[in-house]
Amino acid sequence: MSWEHFILFAIAALICWGLGAFIAWRGKKTGWAYGFTILGLAIFFSFIVGFWLSLERPPMRTMGETRLWYSFFLPLAGLITYSRWKYKWILSFSFILSLVFICINIFKPEIHNKTLMPALQSPWFPPHVIVYMFAYAMLGAATVMAVYLLWFKKKTIERNEMDLCDNLTYVGLAFMTLGMLTGAVWAKEAWGHYWAWDPKETWAAATWFAYLIYIHFRLGKPLQVRPALIILLVSFVLLQMCVYALIIYHLHRESVYILIT
């Protein structure tokens, strides 16, 4: 399966996710919302698997390939959140974000080939990236909820709404921690050390501590919700710096490898 097939699978998946989001927003026949969302996930994931097989490597090397995983995990995170807390807007949010990433991939295609630098051939590379993508999706959903509560919520912030931010952060931080651990093992295998304090690792540590501060603040001062939400937004800004540092770092690594070979 080649990249030319992407648009067909993407349109089919988006139609399913859009229908699921619309049904969830209407608040009727929630079983259909689950069904369409899961069907869209299955369609999109089938492309990822087929593309993986055709490349003979994990589709995680280029930014376009990384956006594939964002496009997949955002609806998945939305479905998990919807099934647990029944917020009817969450599937619409995940659908719109996935649409953005998919449109970027459609209108700005990249060159995809089978070459993969030696460091990325480690068996720890795929689980590290996949776990991180899911963590980003969950923490992104928590941030959207925080923005809604801070600037669009006209009434008093209810406890169950803060519980949603807390639970999304718990899950996101747990997966981020797992991603850091798998990344450390991967780094040890690829470069001979678990941690080197390079930009991506430094920002990852800062982000991890920021979300940990949010959790401890919520546990220690549960009634002070607005300062907690501000901490959550700052944490997400640090997360963006972590993403940018990761992109620059891997582009540098790959360019050095190309020059050497």
From TrEMBL:
Residues of the Cytochrome c assembly protein domain: 77-246
Residues spanning the membrane: 6-25, 32-55, 67-82, 89-109, 129-152, 164-187, 202-217, 229-251
Recorded topology in the membrane: Multi-pass membrane protein
Recorded superkingdom: Bacteria
This protein's record includes keyword Cell membrane: no
Cellular component GO terms held in the UniProt record: plasma membrane
Compartmental location: Membrane
Keywords in alphabetical order: Cytochrome c-type biogenesis, Membrane, Transmembrane, Transmembrane helix
GO biological process per UniProt: cytochrome complex assembly
Principal location: membrane
Pfam short name (any one): Cytochrom_C_asm
Gene Ontology molecular function: heme binding
Protein name: Cytochrome c assembly protein
Organism phylogeny: Bacteria, Pseudomonadati, Bacteroidota, Bacteroidia, Bacteroidales
